[in-house]
Specification:
The structure holds two protein chains of two kinds. Chain A has eight helices and ten strands. By secondary structure, chain A is an alpha/beta fold. Chain A has a domain at 90-165. Chain A has a six-stranded mixed β-sheet, with helices on both faces. In chain A, helix 7 crosses helix 8. The longest helix of chain A has 19 residues, at 248-266. In chain A, 41% of the residues are buried. By secondary structure, chain B is mainly alpha-helical. Chain B contains ten helices and no strands. In chain B, helix 5 (108-115) packs across helix 6 and helix 6 packs antiparallel against helix 8. The interface between A and B is medium-sized, with 29 and 21 residues.
């Protein structure tokens, strides 16, 4: 793949959840055009129910578009994309597994790890423990999820999403349920993991500060129809420190995005042109 | 005595209190032992007929466990099918609910025609009455899967089977053990009811013959024995439940 080509490439993607909705021309997301470079960190912000989660399902191949084409890593998406890892607002760890066993779960399922899991278990476990230590969960590897705080569970959930070294990390409001201090702590952990491994990140969030602090590019999504209305490159220098969130440049960008969101919330749904 | 100790002994205190009041009523109103025997009378009858009662109790016990064993196998299999496929769930659930509403005692005459007097009808009645809660609980445990977790696994290429084995089955284990506690007590009901009309052995048979001979003390003794067996088995499964699925019972009681 040449550097000029994009890693994620949506061209005019529309999705209706079923045939009835398709016939009624009622789309969950519309006319999505998106090009993401390899290793780029993008954030998608928008009001609730604007189709952000639908977008994630499209990107991972869990849903096929009704119209349009999605290419990821130079190949068309035809089914679930194993090169992706997902984490959600709810950590959804399995309560009967220890933290390290929870992190190992994907390796029991995804190839090529699956077939060698029994033989190489020790090696994989070592890798899981290293990853947990990296996110500050050293000493909690053998605890059960219900013995951890919400922030710790979310860290473990992110480790689970990363254990098979995916090329693409999809996060659906991963820090939404956490308190402000824990959230900022996890921003930095995510920033460090990304800086080190340079996977692609698609972060869906309500939090504008979060999107500006973490992402290279922020997309603003409108609600019904769910489409991208604004693309904003964040040119703040990296590495970014939490201090940056108190600078004028930072808050200017946040304000600007806030303005777009406000505009979307005021306008009611305007029917747009239908696809060809 | 601490609050906790009082709490753990409270069932025994209550039992003793009931027995004392019962005894006092029987003695105070001079109730005939042929109508309503006192606890003391029941006890003396239990001791007097202990070998006869023990033989009938053993029969009821193994018949119940045989029916219960079949109920576990069938309940788990059906629950697995219903819980893992929405089509099977939609197709089978209404029928199963209708079946569960039928009084199982009504099956006994039919079973007698098929299998004759003896252990057969009792085993099958115990099975029929106790498999339903097991099936429902397994199905519930399998069907309640967080959609996010399913996405996390499906994106990795997990097949339905992976999700069932890695997530569904462990998740349904607490439901399963919980259902065993309910099912074992129901199984004793099934056996006893069946033995009352379709057997020459077992506590159910003992109840009928003691009743027709006006040996009320002995009849009550039989009831006590069935109740005690069911309680012991309930506690056994309760213990197994707590020790195998501790993760589902975390919280205040462990503090």
């Amino acid at each position: 793949m040449s550097p000029s080509e994009s890693f994620v490439d949506f061209s005019n993607v529309w999705l209706a959840y079923n045939d009835e909705l398709l016939a009624a021309k009622h789309f969950a997301v519309e006319a999505i055009d998106l090009k993401v470079r390899e290793g780029e960190f993008i954030a998608i912000v928008g009001p609730s129910g604007c189709g952000k989660s639908t977008f994630m399902k499209l990107t991972t191949g869990l849903k096929m578009p009704s119209l349009g084409k999605i290419m990821i890593g130079g190949a068309p998406v035809t089914g679930p994309l194993k090169i992706s890892g997902m984490a959600f607002q709810a950590p959804s760890l399995l309560p009967w597994r220890t933290t390290v066993d929870n992190v190992l779960l994907p390796l029991e399922i995804v190839e090529p790890y699956r077939s060698s899991f029994k033989a190489k278990r020790a090696e994989y476990e070592e890798r899981a423990r290293k990853l947990l230590q990296k996110v500050g969960l050293g000493g909690y590897e053998d605890k059960f999820p219900w013995q951890l705080s919400g922030g710790m569970q979310q860290r473990a959930s992110i480790c689970r999403a990363l254990i098979h070294e995916p090329k693409m990390l999809l996060l659906d409001e991963p820090f939404g349920a956490l308190d402000a201090f824990t959230r900022e702590e996890l921003w930095c952990i995510l920033r460090d993991l990304w800086t080190e491994q340079r996977f692609n990140v698609i972060l869906v969030t309500h939090d504008l500060r979060e999107s500006v602090f973490l992402a290279d590019t922020v997309y603003v999504m409108s609600k019904s129809p769910g489409r991208f209305v604004v693309k904003r490159e964040i040119d703040l220098p990296r590495p970014r420190d939490l201090e940056i969130t108190y600078t004028k440049e930072f808050s200017d960008i946040v304000h600007e995005l806030r303005g777009h969101i406000g505009a979307i919330r005021q306008t009611t749904a305007i029917p747009t042109e239908q696809p060809a | 005595m601490t609050r906790r100790q009082i709490e753990s002994w409270s069932p025994w205190f209550l039992l003793v209190a009931i027995l004392l009041i019962w005894q006092a009523i029987c003695a105070g109103f001079n109730v005939s032992e042929f109508i309503f025997p006192s606890p003391w009378r029941i006890w003396t009858q239990l001791v007097e007929f202990k070998w006869i009662i023990a033989a009938h109790a053993w029969r009821t016990y193994w018949v119940t466990m045989a029916g219960f064993g079949i109920a576990i196998v069938v309940g788990v299999l059906l629950g697995f099918v219903i819980g893992s496929s929405r089509l099977a769930y939609t197709a089978m659930y209404p029928l199963m609910t209708g079946f569960n509403a039928l009084p199982k005692a009504a099956f006994v005459p039919i079973l007698v025609v098929w299998f004759g007097i003896g252990a057969g009808p009792a085993i099958l009645t115990a099975f029929l009455i106790s498999f339903f809660p097991i099936m429902v609980n397994i199905a519930t445990g399998l069907a309640t899967l967080e959609p996010e977790l399913e996405d996390v696994l499906r994106v990795l290429g997990a097949k339905r089977w992976d999700v069932l084995v890695k997530v569904g089955l462990p998740r349904s284990m607490p439901y399963f053990y919980g259902s065993l506690k309910v099912a074992i007590t129901l199984a004793f009901v099934g056996t006893t009811v069946s033995e009352m009309t379709a057997a020459n052995e077992g506590i159910g048979y003992l109840l009928i013959s003691a009743g027709s001979a006006m040996q009320m003390g002995l009849a009550f003794g039989g009831l006590v024995v069935v109740g005690a067996m069911a309680m012991v088995m309930y506690e056994l499964f309760s213990y197994i439940e707590k020790s195998t699925t501790a993760w589902a019972h975390r919280g205040s009681q462990n503090q």
